[in-house]
Structure prediction request, 774 residues.
Amino acid sequence: MEVMVSAPEQPASFDAFVTARSAALWRSAWLLTGDAHRAEDLVQTALAKTYPHFTRVGPGFEAYVRTAMFRTYVSWWRRRWTGELPGEVDTRPSADPDVALREDVRRALAALPRQQRAVVVLTYFDDLSGAQAAQVLGVSVGTIKSTLSRALAKLRTSPLLDGSER
Amino acid sequence: MNDDLRSALHEAVPEPPEPSGWAGAARDRARRTARLRASGAGLLALGLVAAVLWPLLGGQGGRTAVPAGASAATSSVEPALPVNTDCTDDLTGAKTLAARGNLKVTRMSLCPRSDGPTFTTPIDAVTTDGSALYDQVQALPAERSADPDCDRKYERRYLLVFTLGDGSTQALEAATPNACTSEDRQTAQRWAQLLKLVTAAWTTQRTATPPAEVARGCLPFDRPGLLVPHTDALSAATLCQYDSNERLQAEARATSEELATLALDLATNTSRASNIDSRLDGAVLTVADAAGDPIVFWRVEGDQWFAFMPEGEQLFWQPGPEALDVLKLLTQRLQPFSPSPTATAPPPDPTPDCEGLTPSHAPAEIPITATRLRLCATGESTGQLVVPLDALTGDGVARVLNVVRSQPVLPTSRACRANLGPDFLLVAETDGQAPVVMVLQLYGCHVVGLQNQERGGADEAMSVYRAEIANQRNVQTGTSVRTGSLCGPWSSSPVAVMAPAPADLIAGRFCRYESREAQAKETALSDDDARLVAADLAQHSGKPAAVSCPLRVQPPPKLVLYNRFGDPLVLTGNCLGRYYFSTGIEGTDREWTPSPTATKRLNALFDR
Prediction:
């Protein structure tokens, strides 16, 4: 089934795009990395990669940046593969008193391997369809489905997300 | 669940920061990447890796930088390693071992893989009880089918090689527990049990027959040890500095006293953990025992180090004060890595006034004035940046120092931008006194750093310094001559802090490279050639440099021209007869499309 989306508009300039859409990208990056500075680093890496193609890509540039961002995130793991076990997201407690939910979500996501984390964020935060998520990550729709299934199975049994008092 | 999860994710995300300056930072980063890519230096390493492979080390927010002399010499040769002769380049591993029948195992070796992330493996082979081990390995739980979400080629793997009685070999491909296999208990068990078996086999043999000593210094980049030595058995410690292309640049070996201090500290101040920040901050400490088994410690933010352990966790190290002092001393002693005789490196541009200077020598206060103020290059990020030969003197010195003194001292806990940029030493000299050496960082928090404090405003300090140098030059004739290689390595395109205007260029050199590793053959341009090139450049340049190119010439032709103050402008052949050059550390890359006359002259030069 083809997914119909409204045609995106051409951003007026790269600067205008960054001003308007960086926040949205950063939010996704935060869910991926669990850390504000890493999220900014990830967004800026994606912007630097995609800036030379701004004029050529035209409308849909945000999707292009998002793809670069998610693939960069996954490839960071591959590039620096050194035997890390899942959960390398920063899980240190924050000084912000109003962060109970934030910490729980961050820690629950931290328990997922990177690709599962990426699929969850794409489908449940960025609200992409399976086909769209597959395109972003460069995998098959079947892989998205199976990855998401495993991720949700983990999250369902996570005590961090079951609403229980701790 | 689905709606709850969706809501939870949306509610959990904090408010994003203002994207102030992000567009400009992305553009700068893209251009730097394009410049390096075009010059054949390879991709600027991404994000975390790129931002932190700078050789800055220090305690409590201070900085210790590599002197310019150490960073200018480059090498494209990896450290030579002692080898196990069983580990041949054509060795490939199988997923399982074939039955050995009646054949006995005569020896076993551990070998690195040649096609991806791997380990430093022991040099010695095991020659006892090989048959028993072979059978035990065969009995291990099988490796399950790979998770389709995990790309196996990026797993860190090694080979276990058995030599049988008939001279044949069986090589088993192996990995260690990792994120891909952690979900599959059977595969995780296989790797964990295999690692225990090989570790026990080597320990047993070495206890009975100590192996020959293996001298270990710096290793190829990202090659942790497969067999982990005890910290009380260490026989060597080496501090290693790599560039952004993962090549060894400099090393410093610990004395026996320093090694003892480090070993004692490692025995008491390490712990196993997971979830260690993998952000790298420049320095790698390789310690090893007499058998050559290493532990490779990576420095992360602050004074923290960690090492990847083969069983999947990390070894976390927080050095104590004495160990920190040793690490500082090692940093000060970093010497350029000497490549093998077959590779050559161009001689460094001598800047005797910069040699040996580090901020750790500096007192805590910024002086009100000084006799001279000069810039020195430091480390990898300024390896391609050329500081002016002339120093600032007169009233301008006080004006620059006043800019620095007026900046607020930064808190120790702060958030900094993730942008990239160069760093320098700003050296204030007064006759008869020790120099005051400050670090000037044009990235991250943009600090001016002393031993015990950091202030903001590095960009303003640099901007005022350059303006004052320019004013000073207006009343000087200038006779500075930059000695040493102007061409530099093939992959490097130096940028001058005081970028000369094309109209001011007076002379230059033509650089010809026969290979990536070879030193440039430098030929001085005739006065006539230099004048023609400079005039043509002034007239036919200015367009932003093209980022992509369908056809590149490798190695790229290169011309270096300079003004009367010795500031170079490097023209690197980019694409189809065009050249690009940088307009300075705060400038952009521009393109020169030579006129037909200039093209004809350049073709004649290249054909010489």
